[in-house]
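C-alpha coordinates for chain A. Residues wanted.
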Protein backbone atom coordinates (compact mmCIF):
# COMPACT_ATOMS: atom_id res chain seq x y z
CA UNK A 1 0.00 0.00 0.00
CA UNK A 2 1.35 3.42 -0.98
CA UNK A 3 1.71 5.70 2.05
CA UNK A 4 1.70 9.46 2.44
CA UNK A 5 5.40 9.28 3.31
CA UNK A 6 6.08 7.59 -0.07
CA UNK A 7 4.39 10.49 -1.87
CA UNK A 8 6.36 12.97 0.23
CA UNK A 9 9.68 11.33 -0.72
CA UNK A 10 8.75 11.24 -4.42
CA UNK A 11 7.69 14.90 -4.40
CA UNK A 12 10.60 16.03 -2.23
CA UNK A 13 8.37 17.58 0.43
CA UNK A 14 7.25 16.77 3.97
CA UNK A 15 4.28 14.47 4.69
CA UNK A 16 2.37 17.43 6.12
CA UNK A 17 2.83 19.33 2.84
CA UNK A 18 1.38 16.35 0.98
CA UNK A 19 -1.64 16.38 3.26
CA UNK A 20 -2.13 20.12 2.86
CA UNK A 21 -1.74 19.93 -0.91
CA UNK A 22 -4.28 17.13 -1.30
CA UNK A 23 -6.79 18.36 1.28
CA UNK A 24 -6.62 22.10 0.67
CA UNK A 25 -6.52 22.73 4.44
CA UNK A 26 -3.75 25.34 4.04
CA UNK A 27 -2.45 27.42 1.13
CA UNK A 28 0.22 25.64 -0.92
CA UNK A 29 1.99 27.09 -3.96
CA UNK A 30 0.66 25.92 -7.33
CA UNK A 31 4.04 24.43 -8.25
CA UNK A 32 4.23 22.38 -5.05
CA UNK A 33 0.60 21.26 -5.37
CA UNK A 34 1.19 20.08 -8.93
CA UNK A 35 4.35 18.23 -7.88
CA UNK A 36 2.51 16.47 -5.06
CA UNK A 37 -0.45 15.60 -7.26
CA UNK A 38 1.86 14.19 -9.91
CA UNK A 39 3.70 12.06 -7.35
CA UNK A 40 0.40 10.78 -5.97
CA UNK A 41 -0.78 9.82 -9.47
CA UNK A 42 2.51 8.12 -10.35
CA UNK A 43 2.44 6.04 -7.18
CA UNK A 44 -1.29 5.34 -7.24
CA UNK A 45 -1.82 6.97 -3.84
CA UNK A 46 -5.39 7.34 -2.62
CA UNK A 47 -5.93 9.26 0.62
CA UNK A 48 -7.83 7.24 3.18
CA UNK A 49 -11.12 8.84 4.25
CA UNK A 50 -9.64 9.10 7.76
CA UNK A 51 -10.84 8.70 11.31
CA UNK A 52 -13.58 11.30 11.10
CA UNK A 53 -15.90 9.04 9.16
CA UNK A 54 -19.08 7.44 10.50
CA UNK A 55 -18.81 5.61 13.80
CA UNK A 56 -19.61 2.27 12.22
CA UNK A 57 -16.51 2.60 10.01
CA UNK A 58 -14.13 3.26 12.86
CA UNK A 59 -11.54 0.81 14.13
CA UNK A 60 -12.30 1.34 17.85
CA UNK A 61 -8.53 1.70 18.34
CA UNK A 62 -6.59 4.65 19.70
CA UNK A 63 -2.88 4.97 18.99
CA UNK A 64 -0.29 6.13 21.53
CA UNK A 65 2.78 7.75 19.96
CA UNK A 66 5.51 7.28 22.57
CA UNK A 67 9.03 7.28 21.10
CA UNK A 68 11.39 5.39 23.42
CA UNK A 69 14.38 7.66 22.97
CA UNK A 70 17.56 8.03 24.98
CA UNK A 71 16.91 9.63 28.35
CA UNK A 72 13.30 8.45 28.57
CA UNK A 73 12.67 6.66 31.88
CA UNK A 74 10.53 3.67 30.91
CA UNK A 75 8.77 3.19 34.29
CA UNK A 76 7.55 6.79 34.15
CA UNK A 77 6.14 6.55 30.65
CA UNK A 78 4.68 3.13 31.43
CA UNK A 79 2.44 4.78 34.03
CA UNK A 80 1.14 7.11 31.35
CA UNK A 81 0.67 4.26 28.88
CA UNK A 82 -1.29 2.22 31.42
CA UNK A 83 -3.51 5.21 32.19
CA UNK A 84 -4.26 5.71 28.47
CA UNK A 85 -5.05 2.01 28.01
CA UNK A 86 -7.28 1.93 31.09
CA UNK A 87 -9.20 5.03 30.04
CA UNK A 88 -9.53 3.81 26.45
CA UNK A 89 -11.12 0.57 27.63
CA UNK A 90 -13.81 2.52 29.49
CA UNK A 91 -14.70 4.00 26.09
CA UNK A 92 -14.59 0.60 24.35
CA UNK A 93 -11.31 1.28 22.53
CA UNK A 94 -8.07 -0.70 22.36
CA UNK A 95 -4.66 1.01 22.16
CA UNK A 96 -1.95 0.64 19.51
CA UNK A 97 1.53 1.64 20.77
CA UNK A 98 3.97 3.47 18.44
CA UNK A 99 7.50 3.61 19.88
CA UNK A 100 9.80 4.11 16.91
CA UNK A 101 12.00 7.16 16.35
CA UNK A 102 10.38 10.57 16.12
CA UNK A 103 7.02 8.99 15.32
CA UNK A 104 6.29 10.87 12.08
CA UNK A 105 6.29 7.78 9.91
CA UNK A 106 4.07 5.86 12.31
CA UNK A 107 1.54 8.70 12.50
CA UNK A 108 1.50 9.00 8.70
CA UNK A 109 0.91 5.26 8.45
CA UNK A 110 -2.04 5.53 10.83
CA UNK A 111 -3.68 8.11 8.59
CA UNK A 112 -2.99 6.03 5.48
CA UNK A 113 -4.39 2.77 6.80
CA UNK A 114 -7.01 3.92 9.35
CA UNK A 115 -5.42 1.49 11.81
CA UNK A 116 -6.56 3.83 14.60
CA UNK A 117 -9.33 6.38 14.99
CA UNK A 118 -7.15 8.93 16.79
CA UNK A 119 -3.77 9.31 18.47
CA UNK A 120 -2.36 10.39 21.84
CA UNK A 121 1.11 11.92 21.47
CA UNK A 122 3.69 11.85 24.28
CA UNK A 123 7.27 13.03 24.88
CA UNK A 124 6.39 16.34 23.24
CA UNK A 125 9.22 18.70 22.32
CA UNK A 126 8.89 22.47 22.14
CA UNK A 127 9.48 22.26 18.38
CA UNK A 128 8.29 18.71 17.88
CA UNK A 129 8.82 17.36 14.33
CA UNK A 130 5.47 15.54 14.52
CA UNK A 131 3.46 18.76 14.82
CA UNK A 132 3.17 19.76 11.13
CA UNK A 133 1.87 16.31 10.29
CA UNK A 134 -0.59 16.31 13.20
CA UNK A 135 -1.93 19.68 12.09
CA UNK A 136 -2.29 18.57 8.49
CA UNK A 137 -3.84 15.12 8.81
CA UNK A 138 -7.54 14.40 9.38
CA UNK A 139 -6.54 12.07 12.22
CA UNK A 140 -7.72 13.54 15.57
CA UNK A 141 -4.92 13.89 18.11
CA UNK A 142 -4.27 14.99 21.70
CA UNK A 143 -0.80 15.79 23.04
CA UNK A 144 0.23 15.02 26.61
CA UNK A 145 2.61 17.96 26.65
CA UNK A 146 2.46 21.54 25.36
CA UNK A 147 4.79 22.63 22.53
CA UNK A 148 6.02 26.17 22.04
CA UNK A 149 3.22 26.84 19.54
CA UNK A 150 0.04 24.89 20.37
CA UNK A 151 -2.02 26.55 17.63
CA UNK A 152 -4.22 24.05 15.84
CA UNK A 153 -3.55 21.31 18.41
CA UNK A 154 -5.18 19.87 21.53
CA UNK A 155 -2.84 19.61 24.51
CA UNK A 156 -3.09 18.53 28.15
CA UNK A 157 -0.33 18.48 30.76
CA UNK A 158 0.73 19.36 34.25
CA UNK A 159 1.70 23.03 34.48
CA UNK A 160 5.42 22.27 34.76
CA UNK A 161 6.42 25.95 34.82
CA UNK A 162 4.22 26.45 37.87
CA UNK A 163 5.57 23.20 39.36
CA UNK A 164 9.13 24.51 39.15
CA UNK A 165 8.03 27.75 40.79
CA UNK A 166 6.21 25.88 43.53
CA UNK A 167 9.32 23.87 44.44
CA UNK A 168 11.57 26.93 44.64
CA UNK A 169 8.97 28.93 46.56
CA UNK A 170 8.54 26.08 49.08
CA UNK A 171 12.27 25.97 49.79
CA UNK A 172 12.38 29.76 50.07
CA UNK A 173 9.53 29.76 52.61
CA UNK A 174 11.57 27.33 54.70
CA UNK A 175 14.45 29.79 54.72
CA UNK A 176 16.75 28.09 52.20
CA UNK A 177 18.88 30.55 50.25
CA UNK A 178 21.11 28.31 48.11
CA UNK A 179 19.26 25.73 46.04
CA UNK A 180 19.85 23.43 43.07
CA UNK A 181 17.71 21.59 40.55
CA UNK A 182 18.84 18.07 39.58
CA UNK A 183 17.18 17.55 36.24
CA UNK A 184 16.60 14.96 33.55
CA UNK A 185 19.46 13.45 31.51
CA UNK A 186 21.19 15.98 29.23
CA UNK A 187 19.72 14.57 26.01
CA UNK A 188 16.21 15.38 27.25
CA UNK A 189 17.12 19.09 27.32
CA UNK A 190 19.01 18.90 24.02
CA UNK A 191 15.80 17.64 22.38
CA UNK A 192 14.01 20.64 23.94
CA UNK A 193 11.53 18.37 25.63
CA UNK A 194 8.68 20.62 26.71
CA UNK A 195 8.03 19.47 30.29
CA UNK A 196 11.73 19.49 31.26
CA UNK A 197 12.42 22.92 29.77
CA UNK A 198 9.34 24.46 31.36
CA UNK A 199 10.15 23.13 34.82
CA UNK A 200 13.65 24.65 34.62
CA UNK A 201 12.16 27.98 33.52
CA UNK A 202 9.72 28.00 36.44
CA UNK A 203 12.36 26.99 38.97
CA UNK A 204 14.88 29.63 37.88
CA UNK A 205 12.21 32.35 37.62
CA UNK A 206 11.02 31.72 41.17
CA UNK A 207 14.57 31.43 42.50
CA UNK A 208 15.44 34.79 40.94
CA UNK A 209 12.25 36.35 42.33
CA UNK A 210 13.05 35.01 45.79
CA UNK A 211 16.71 36.15 45.44
CA UNK A 212 18.02 32.62 45.89
CA UNK A 213 21.39 31.42 44.66
CA UNK A 214 20.38 28.64 42.25
CA UNK A 215 21.83 26.26 39.71
CA UNK A 216 20.48 23.63 37.29
CA UNK A 217 22.20 20.27 36.70
CA UNK A 218 21.04 17.76 34.07
CA UNK A 219 22.07 14.31 35.26
CA UNK A 220 22.16 10.76 33.95
CA UNK A 221 19.82 8.45 35.85
CA UNK A 222 22.28 6.11 37.57
CA UNK A 223 23.93 5.85 41.00
CA UNK A 224 27.43 6.76 39.85
CA UNK A 225 26.12 9.96 38.26
CA UNK A 226 24.16 10.78 41.43
CA UNK A 227 27.23 10.29 43.62
CA UNK A 228 29.43 12.42 41.36
CA UNK A 229 26.84 15.19 41.18
CA UNK A 230 26.31 15.27 44.95
CA UNK A 231 30.06 15.70 45.43
CA UNK A 232 30.22 18.45 42.81
CA UNK A 233 27.23 20.31 44.25
CA UNK A 234 28.79 20.50 47.71
CA UNK A 235 32.15 21.47 46.26
CA UNK A 236 30.74 24.24 44.04
CA UNK A 237 27.91 25.37 46.35
CA UNK A 238 29.12 24.87 49.95
CA UNK A 239 26.08 26.78 51.24
CA UNK A 240 23.62 24.43 49.53
CA UNK A 241 20.66 23.51 51.74
CA UNK A 242 17.84 22.81 49.24
CA UNK A 243 17.62 20.45 46.26
CA UNK A 244 14.80 19.83 43.77
CA UNK A 245 14.94 16.49 41.90
CA UNK A 246 13.20 16.15 38.54
CA UNK A 247 14.69 12.78 37.70
CA UNK A 248 12.74 9.99 39.38
CA UNK A 249 15.45 7.25 39.41
CA UNK A 250 17.84 9.56 41.28
CA UNK A 251 15.73 10.15 44.41
CA UNK A 252 17.09 7.28 46.53
CA UNK A 253 20.63 7.44 45.06
CA UNK A 254 20.87 11.15 45.91
CA UNK A 255 19.60 10.55 49.46
CA UNK A 256 22.32 7.90 49.83
CA UNK A 257 25.01 10.07 48.24
CA UNK A 258 24.35 13.09 50.44
CA UNK A 259 24.23 10.81 53.49
CA UNK A 260 27.68 9.41 52.69
CA UNK A 261 28.92 12.98 52.46
CA UNK A 262 27.71 13.63 56.00
CA UNK A 263 24.49 15.52 55.26
CA UNK A 264 21.28 14.55 57.01
CA UNK A 265 17.95 15.00 55.24
CA UNK A 266 16.15 17.17 56.25
CA UNK A 267 18.42 18.35 59.09
CA UNK A 268 21.18 19.63 56.81
CA UNK A 269 19.57 19.47 53.39
CA UNK A 270 15.92 19.66 52.27
CA UNK A 271 14.90 17.68 49.20
CA UNK A 272 11.83 18.12 46.99
CA UNK A 273 10.94 15.87 44.04
CA UNK A 274 8.70 16.27 41.00
CA UNK A 275 7.37 12.76 40.41
CA UNK A 276 4.29 10.57 40.85
CA UNK A 277 3.07 10.65 44.45
CA UNK A 278 3.51 6.88 45.05
CA UNK A 279 7.19 7.16 44.14
CA UNK A 280 7.76 10.04 46.57
CA UNK A 281 5.84 8.36 49.38
CA UNK A 282 7.64 5.06 48.84
CA UNK A 283 11.18 6.44 48.75
CA UNK A 284 13.72 5.44 51.41
CA UNK A 285 12.76 8.65 53.17
CA UNK A 286 9.24 9.89 52.26
CA UNK A 287 9.93 12.87 50.01
CA UNK A 288 8.10 16.17 49.78
CA UNK A 289 6.90 16.27 46.20
CA UNK A 290 4.91 17.87 43.44
CA UNK A 291 2.77 15.09 42.02
CA UNK A 292 2.95 14.19 38.32
CA UNK A 293 -0.65 12.99 37.84
CA UNK A 294 -0.07 10.39 35.12
CA UNK A 295 -3.43 8.65 35.65
CA UNK A 296 -5.40 11.88 35.40
CA UNK A 297 -3.45 13.13 32.39
CA UNK A 298 -3.91 9.89 30.46
CA UNK A 299 -7.62 9.79 31.25
CA UNK A 300 -8.10 13.43 30.23
CA UNK A 301 -6.28 12.86 26.94
CA UNK A 302 -8.57 9.95 26.10
CA UNK A 303 -11.70 11.89 27.07
CA UNK A 304 -10.63 14.77 24.84
CA UNK A 305 -10.07 12.37 21.94
CA UNK A 306 -13.48 10.78 22.41
CA UNK A 307 -15.07 14.23 22.38
CA UNK A 308 -13.20 15.15 19.20
CA UNK A 309 -14.33 11.92 17.53
CA UNK A 310 -17.92 12.82 18.38
CA UNK A 311 -17.50 16.23 16.77
CA UNK A 312 -17.60 18.19 20.03
CA UNK A 313 -15.38 21.22 20.54
CA UNK A 314 -12.49 20.91 23.00
CA UNK A 315 -10.11 23.44 24.56
CA UNK A 316 -6.77 23.98 22.83
CA UNK A 317 -4.64 23.72 26.00
CA UNK A 318 -5.52 22.26 29.39
CA UNK A 319 -2.90 22.50 32.15
CA UNK A 320 -3.42 21.01 35.59
CA UNK A 321 -2.26 23.09 38.57
CA UNK A 322 0.61 21.53 40.54
CA UNK A 323 0.03 20.31 44.09
CA UNK A 324 2.83 19.97 46.64
CA UNK A 325 2.61 17.44 49.47
CA UNK A 326 4.98 17.92 52.41
CA UNK A 327 6.67 14.81 53.75
CA UNK A 328 9.75 14.03 55.83
CA UNK A 329 12.43 15.36 53.45
CA UNK A 330 11.98 19.12 53.97
CA UNK A 331 12.37 21.31 57.05
CA UNK A 332 13.26 24.91 57.90
CA UNK A 333 16.90 25.79 57.29
CA UNK A 334 18.98 25.66 60.43
CA UNK A 335 20.70 28.89 61.45
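Reply:
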Amino acid sequence: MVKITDVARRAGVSPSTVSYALSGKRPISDATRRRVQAAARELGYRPHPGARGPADRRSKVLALSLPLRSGVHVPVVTRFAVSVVTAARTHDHDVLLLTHGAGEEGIGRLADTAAADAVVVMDVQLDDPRLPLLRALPLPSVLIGVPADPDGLTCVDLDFHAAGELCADHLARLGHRTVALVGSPPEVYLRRTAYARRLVQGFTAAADRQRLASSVHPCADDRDAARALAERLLREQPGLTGVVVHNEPLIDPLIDAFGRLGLRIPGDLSLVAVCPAPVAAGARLPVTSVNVPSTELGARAVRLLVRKLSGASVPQVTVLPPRLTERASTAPRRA
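Residues 50-54 have pLDDT under 50 and may be disordered. The longest strand covers residues 178-183.
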